[in-house]
Amino acid sequence: MASAKASVATRRRARVNLLPFFLLLPVMVVFLAVFAPAVIHIFLQSLWKFDSFRLAIVRDLTAANYVKFFTDAYYLNVLWLTIRISLIVTGISLVIGYCLAYFIFYRGGRFRTYYVLILLSPLLVTVVVRAFGWLLFLGDNGLLAQFLKFVLRTDSPPRVIFNEQGVILGLFHVYLPFMVLAILGSLQRIDISLPMAARNLGASAYQAFTRVTLPLSLPGVFTGSVLVFVLTMGSFAVPFLLGGGKVPMIAMQVYEKELVFINWPFAGAMGFILLAIVGTVIIFSGRALERGKYGVVFQ
Amino acid sequence: MKRKIRVGFTVLTIYNVIIYLIILAPIVAVLLASISPSEAPVFPPNGFTLKWYLYAIGNSLYMGAFGISLVLGILTALSATALGTLSALALVRYRFVGRDVLQAFFLSPLILPLVLIGVALLQFYSLVGIRASIFTLLVGHIIITAPYVVRLVSVGLAGFDRNLELAARNLGASAWETFRRITLPIIMTGVVAGAAFAFIVSFGDVTLTVFITSPKVVTLPVRIFAYLEIRYDTFIFALGSMMIVFAAIAMVIIERAVGLGRVFGIEPRGR
């Protein structure tokens, strides 16, 4: 009797242990049959040679593609440009996004949800359409050019598109919602009675903000910054459309090397260099976040 | 003192109005520019016409791309949601060897740059000898959207009271009935939110799709992207407007079904 019961229990446990495997099976098929081999293959390929005369890949193991990236002045410049633009975009979104999140949370009142929805609505429209909307304002016959022509009394006003500024504006517009969402998330988690207590105890509004609210919202600031930085580093369509070919960010270089010059090993190597930078940022920030008990990035 | 606060408030309000104008500017501009009769795009519009819309609707190249985007978006939403929900159930509910590794593996496409995934898939397809079709696009889109579903459903499962299921089983419900009548309805918001997110990402993606597309199977964003590389005229704004209107309709449907706030995770505690 007792042994029969035990065998039923073991059989049930064995069956239960197989269930998660069956649940994961469909996703594993896609990820193990396509995703994992594709990524491994492209990594191996990035260690192969490319014969630029015969336009063929030679299967010799070499780190030449990586060495070339870090020794060629052009690619070092691409890397620096990408990092610089990402830092600038992160900084601008942080300052503007924080004010916006603060306003939505503390002054939004019953319209708070609507403010957030308007902020997020551009995310539903493909990035291509959002980028070319800017051409209407910033293009050569756009509103801004006409305004500058009028104000500066010149026929060739300074351009703010098809250069770095245009790309920064476009990227800021695309990634601002992510920053605001992250900061809003941490503002929501602050116990509202804490800044109120500070005020009650004699702190000025400014003091209550800098000493209580701001420090408590830092996890959101941190998460948002990492998110925007990582997304900007890998951005492709905006620098392509608003950079006018003069702002070669790294993802665009991958595209060009892959599809125009068909130097696949080098394109793959650049992809992995990008991943290495992004991954390092995420891992280090993840550690910092854990130390501060602030949970996971992307949450 | 009070006056000072009011001034500060006014400044903050004006500031936010300006930022909101900037946020909406390109989208409003695209909508308005599309009704302009001139071939060169202008804003504000110099007249009213719907000819660019008629031209777009009559153009089989672009309507075909629109159809492909739509079908691909729906297929991606359905399959990514099914796969993602099943794996979220396994990852949240069960403890087994390698669970953390698998979870990190399934969420990794969120961290990998899309260009890298694009290059990797293109190379892999050509290595294996698979021709580009809507199915190769679908696999790519599942890879980049399933992680979102896994996360959104996991959040719903984490706050789940298992006693409800135990009670159902105690009262005689089968395992399937319990899932169908108890588990699924409770995690439904997360599932629908995941599907909506998957559709939005799939419908708008350029960065991944541009690599794995072929001349015969092109999505609308990639088609617009390719057009903009060569030409820039009012016609493309009519196409852009159609995508915006479509996104707005999708937004209303999602808002009615689950609430957009949930899709973007801004209302975790419900209304």
Give structural notes:
The complex is a heterodimer of chains A (about 300) and B (about 270). Chain A is mostly helical and about 300 residues long. Helix content of chain A is about 75%, strand content about 0%. In chain A, strands 1-2 form a two-stranded antiparallel sheet. In chain A, helix 11 packs antiparallel against helix 12 (about 265-290). The radius of gyration of chain A is 26 Å and the shape is globular. Chain A starts with a helix and ends in an 8-residue tail after the last helix. Chain B is an all-alpha fold and about 270 residues long. Chain B has a single domain (about 50-265), classed as MetI-like (MetI-like fold, Orthogonal Bundle). Chain B is built from 12 helices and no strands. Chain B has helices at about 1-35, 50-60, 60-95, 100-105, 115-130, 135-160, 160-170, 175-205, 210, 220-230, 235-255, 260-265. In chain B, helix 3 (about 60-95) packs across helix 8 (about 175-205) and helix 7 packs antiparallel against helix 8. The two termini of chain B are about 35 Å apart.
Give a nutshell description of this structure.
The complex is a heterodimer of chains A (299) and B (271). Chain A has helices at residues 2-45, 64-71, 73-107, 112-120, 127-138, 143-152, 164-189, 193-200, 205-233, 237-242, 250-260, 264-291; strands at 49-51, 56-58.
Write the layout of secondary structure elements.
The complex is a heterodimer of chains A (299) and B (271).
Chain A: H1 2-45, E1 49-51, E2 56-58, H2 64-71, H3 73-107, H4 112-120, H5 127-138, H6 143-152, H7 164-189, H8 193-200, H9 205-233, H10 237-242, H11 250-260, H12 264-291
Antiparallel strand pairs in A: 1-2
Helix pairs in contact in A: 2-3, 3-7, 3-9, 7-9, 8-9, 9-12, 11-12
Chain B: H1 2-33, H2 51-58, H3 60-93, H4 99-107, H5 114-128, H6 134-158, H7 162-170, H8 175-204, H9 209-212, H10 220-230, H11 234-257, H12 260-263
Helix pairs in contact in B: 1-11, 2-11, 3-6, 3-8, 6-8, 7-8
